[in-house]
Specification:
The chain is an alpha/beta fold. The protein is about 45% helix and about 15% strand. The longest helix is centred in the middle third of the chain and has 16 residues, at about 120-135.
């Protein structure tokens, strides 16, 4: 991509109501981000709402300056060095901000996640496991959170570690990990999906978790309660067809109940680095590459008013799988996706995990 197209893609990705799925569909349909930006108001009007607010070019200039000051750069989907495993995901981030060595993800990568309030024994085990996996040639990926994440990064800092954060590339969170994050940026790799200057908000952590799971061949959960973000990461890994592994713990420790539940549900029980490498060694991350046309062919025809009425009538406040809409409406998949795209740009549709959608209002 030339510089004007890269800037247009950044602007499209930073615009309101344009998430990864919508971004991909717009590029597939119009070929370039510049053409997609011009078409957005018309599509939103067909969806019955006002167009989304496109990112101000002046804000893009500010973002480019802040990224440069942080010693980072943008990587866009379709770039040769965009993480190959992540590029396969349906909702792969259109733009990543990275600081460090992206080639670390050419090696077999393993995500390690767990409790923030982890026990001392679990942190020690995570640090040792990460160290041994690094010595075996793996790259360790985690979220730079307190507890297990921090232990995993410390254990693999010298062999190769990747920190995925839920804020801007120039923000350190938690604050006590500022020095660790800086070291990872110099010796390993830090990845952020949010623009620079973005503070960590609760809704950004599940998005970060999908990146952690997406760049790795498998995810190891070391210690986790039944309702924790680590189990979200494990679920996302399973949905992506990646290995899910868990370290067993005491049944009387609430912090181990999530891991034990994963094992009961089919996750692989892990007790050593050899156990992990046995699961991921047959796969080579460098052999994985998404197809050149990541988003597929654009729809051949626009939807008609009758298509819009029929498809919208099937939607409501309860999320429904897109495949079910295609089946019940009897419309071609491209037409259904076109109507959903129009509704989302109009602010009337919300996308959920598992390729499900719902209406946001009347």
């Amino acid at each position: 991509m030339d510089d004007p197209e890269r800037r247009a893609r950044l602007r499209l990705a930073r615009s309101s109501r344009i998430g990864p799925v919508t971004f991909g569909q717009l590029i597939a349909r119009f070929g370039t981000a510049a053409a997609a930006i011009e078409a957005v108001p018309t599509l939103a009007a067909r969806g019955g709402g006002r167009p989304p607010e496109l990112a101000d070019p002046r804000r893009l200039n500010d973002e480019l300056r802040r990224v440069a000051r942080a010693g980072a750069r943008h990587v866009m989907i379709g770039d040769p060095d965009y993480p190959a495993l992540l590029e396969q995901a349906d909702a792969a981030p259109p733009v990543l901000t990275v600081r460090g060595d992206l080639s670390l993800l050419d090696r077999p990568s393993i995500a390690m996640v767990g409790a923030r309030n982890a026990s001392a024994a679990a942190c020690r085990f995570a640090r040792q496991l990460a160290h041994e996996l690094g010595q075996a040639g793996a790259t360790i990926v985690s979220g730079l959170a307190r507890g297990i994440d921090t232990a995993a990064h410390h254990g693999s800092i010298d062999s190769g570690t990747v920190g995925v954060i839920a804020c801007g590339i120039d923000i350190a969170f938690p604050p006590e990990n500022a020095e660790l994050q800086d070291r990872i940026g110099e010796q390993g790799l830090v990845i952020a999906e949010q623009p620079p200057g973005t503070e960590p908000l609760a809704r950004f952590f599940p998005r970060r978790n999908r990146i952690i799971a997406g760049v790795a061949l498998g995810t190891v959960v070391v210690e986790a309660a039944l309702r924790s973000g680590s189990l979200i990461t494990a679920r996302l890994a399973a949905e992506a067809g990646r290995e899910v592994m868990a370290v067993p713990g005491s049944p009387i420790d609430p912090r181990a109940q999530g891991c034990n539940a994963l094992i009961r549900e089919g996750a692989i029980l892990i007790q050593s680095a050899a156990d992990v490498m046995e699961q991921i060694r047959p796969i080579d991350a460098r052999a994985v590459r998404a197809p050149a046309s990541h988003w597929g062919a654009p729809p051949a025809d626009d939807a008609t008013d009758s298509d819009r009425i029929a498809i919208t009538a099937l939607l409501g406040p309860v999320p429904v799988p897109v495949d079910e809409l295609i089946r019940q409406s009897g419309r071609p998949p491209a037409i259904v996706q076109t109507v959903l795209l129009e509704l989302e740009l109009a602010g009337r549709l919300e996308r959920h995990a598992g390729a499900r959608v719902s209406l946001t209002g009347p």
